[in-house]
Amino acid sequence: MVTALNGKKAIGMTYKDYKILDFLMDEDFQQWVFCSTEASDDHWNRVILENPGKREIIDQAKKVLRSIDYEKTGISESDKKHILISIQRRINTARSKEAASTPQKYVITKAGNEDHLSVTHRLSQKKDKSGFWRGIAAGLIGIAIVTAALYFPGHPSENAETIAIDYWERSSLKGEKRSITLSDGTKIKLNSNSKLIVPQQFPAHERKVSLVGEAYFEVSEDASRPFIITSREINVVVLGTSFNVRAYPSENTVQVAVATGTVSVEKTADKSPIDQEPILLSPNEMVTYFKATGNANKESFDPMAVFAWKDDILYFKDADIYTVIERLEQWYGVTFIVKTQLNEDKDLNGSFRDKSLSAILDGLSYVFGFDYQIEGKIVTLN
Question: How far apart are CA 194 and CA 212, in angstroms?
Fold first, then answer.
């Protein structure tokens, strides 16, 4: 990696190549942290959307910069660079040692003053062969402590208070839909046979939920906390917008379709090459991810075909009879048993609002040529 020591981005370097040191030494990034403007907010929020994998590093770099008071410490520009480089070397060394050792189980801790003192004590006990750290003023120790807290979690002290992150789950059965409003004001419509997992309280740097099934999101805007939806195959990152995510485990595809705003979609780490770029979606754009091949297809879409369900409209466009049956099973929470040969040459186009299952089957029976019988949750086609 080529580092821009003059504080500007190196030629040919992109933000996806940035490490924490590159953000710390980027003058545009520093100006945004210390004196943000509407233009800089727009720029860096766009960077986060286009590079969701750098979100955590950006948050960490902001914390490091905000912990420094260079005017009081009297540290020169040259010393700042040496300090940051030294920190990065310590980080790399620690990570190498960690990778070679047995993985640890980390917990989130909230340490009191005694634990902060213990962090400082542990740092002071580490002998620096170059002697560089012995001559640095108190401001440098502040940088080291913050960096250590971010990168060297280690084991909590005996006096540390463990924070248990509580989650709640909302699920819908087949034939059921649920409306949910989160603590940040985000509104979610959960389709049938779906599940949403949400922390009871969002942390300061992000809003992350997990989805199994289908949901329509109207995300409350918060530029400082991206909203992230995770599924097994993809992550969806937004700041404030409305969109639909369909990620049923039983289906061969995952789809994300945007109504308003901008959405970034990335494959999860185990499903994507390292250099895989996120896919940015604008209104009326949709991406379809194919589970078997790992390929993704970006295209426009029919809003009614994707969004109608949230308004309790059952919508069909060029749907064959077996697609219709699958949708009816999900919509009404029933199971079909087919005992006759169905006409697969005909397609169904139309929409139904507030119609009973029997009313829909009456119409379908004429089009596709079958008789039906409903017994509880079982529908038999003869």
Answer: 6
Which amino acid is residue 241, in one-letter code? T
Measured distance CA(281)–CA(265) in Å, rounded: 8
Residues 53 and 148 in one domain: yes
Write down which residue in 130, 161, 192 finishes a domain: 161
Residue 179 structural domain: 167-305
Which helix (H) or strand (E) covers residue 83, if one does?
helix 77-100
Determine if the pTM surpasses 0.85: no
Tell me: do 293 and 209 sit in the same domain.
yes
Alpha carbon 382 to its chain's center: 46
Residue at which a domain ends, from 129, 161, 193: 161
> What span, in angstroms and rounded, lies between the C-alpha atoms of 187 and 196?
12
pLDDT tens track for 28-75: 888 888 777 878 888 888 888 888 888 888 887 887 777 654 444 444
Rounded to 10 deg, the angle between the 55-66 and 38-50 helix axes is 140
Question: In this structure, are residues 284 and 300 in contact, taking their beta carbons and an 8 Å threshold?
Answer: yes
Q: What is the DSSP string of 286-329?
A: EEEEETTT--EEEEE--HHHHHGGGGTEEEEEEE-HHHHHHHHH
- Terminal-residue alpha carbon distance, the chain: 68
- Number of neighbouring beta carbons within 10 Å of residue 199: 16
Highest mean pLDDT among 138-147, 299-308, 339-348: 299-308
Phi-psi region of 363 (alpha: psi -120 to 50; beta: other; left: phi over 0): alpha
